[in-house]
Amino acid sequence: MIVLSYGMTKSGSTLAFELCKAILEKRGFAQRRLPDEVVTPGHHINFLQEVSVVGLQALLKEVAQGEFVAIKLHTGLRQPEADFIGQQISAGTIKLHVNFRDPREVCLSLVDAGAKAREKQRQAFSEIVTLSDAANAVKRQLNICRRWGSIEGALPLFYNQVAFETGAAIERICADFGFPMFDQPTCAELMAPLFGETFTQKNKAVKDRYKDDLTVRQNEMLLDQIPGVRPFINRVCEQGDYSWFSQIRRGATEEVV
């Protein structure tokens, strides 16, 4: 089985991916680096720059009987791949985690990442200077997130739970995998490296940082500039109503972009 760990950029997706790996390793599933022929070359982790039906089939052939391997990705999703992943979830050969965060916080993290990139003369995120720049980047991200989340059987994982109520996130992931929940000492042992030496691209790690880091005007600007963000925040982030994702699968007319 493979676990596709999708996440919006700067949504805490690396933390969620590392948490998934740690749970699998605790249950005896070693997380080997897969060959470059089936994952994106040059990454120290199992990462997919893009997803295709042929590529997913190659991954499933590579992962041996009894293996359970997590793979991280941020990429967009076409309908043939969405259909294939849904079929494989039903068949029990793929699990899908969809990691997301309040888009206002994603914007703040993108601006931070842009400043850091320019300071260190790195290309990635260097074009993000203002909150408006970040909002333009998040417009597409939100639509992509909804497409991934619309796949039946996907497990939605909210940043606030993964980062600040990690025990509850572990319990949900274990239930999705069909594993028994760990006892408290094992949970603490599993979590310690994630908030210590493990590389997770940690930024400010402040819950609901938009409340302190955005002015009223900036908050309204982001809500106005990112189409579909108000229902996403109200229903998904605040109420935990994940039917927002599945509505596009059922042909609902509510638009994101």
Shape: globular
Order of helices and strands: EHEHEHEHHEHHHHHHH
Cα distance spanning the termini:
33 Å
Tell me, rounded to a whole number, the average pLDDT: 91
Q: How many whole angstroms does the radius of gyration measure? A: 18 Å
- Strands of the biggest beta sheet: in what spatial order? 2-3-1-4-5
Based on the structure given, which CATH architecture is correct? Answer: 3-Layer(aba) Sandwich
How helical, in percent, are the residues?
Answer: 40-55%
Task: Describe the model.
The protein has a single domain, classed as P-loop containing nucleotide triphosphate hydrolases (Rossmann fold), CATH 3.40.50. Strand 2 (47-48), helix 2 (53-62) and strand 3 form a beta-alpha-beta unit. It starts with a strand and ends in an 11-residue tail after the last helix. The chain has 12 helices and 5 strands. The chain has a 5-stranded parallel β-sheet with strand order 2-3-1-4-5, with helices on both faces. The model is unreliable at 251-257 (pLDDT under 50). With 257 residues, the protein is an alpha/beta fold. It is globular.
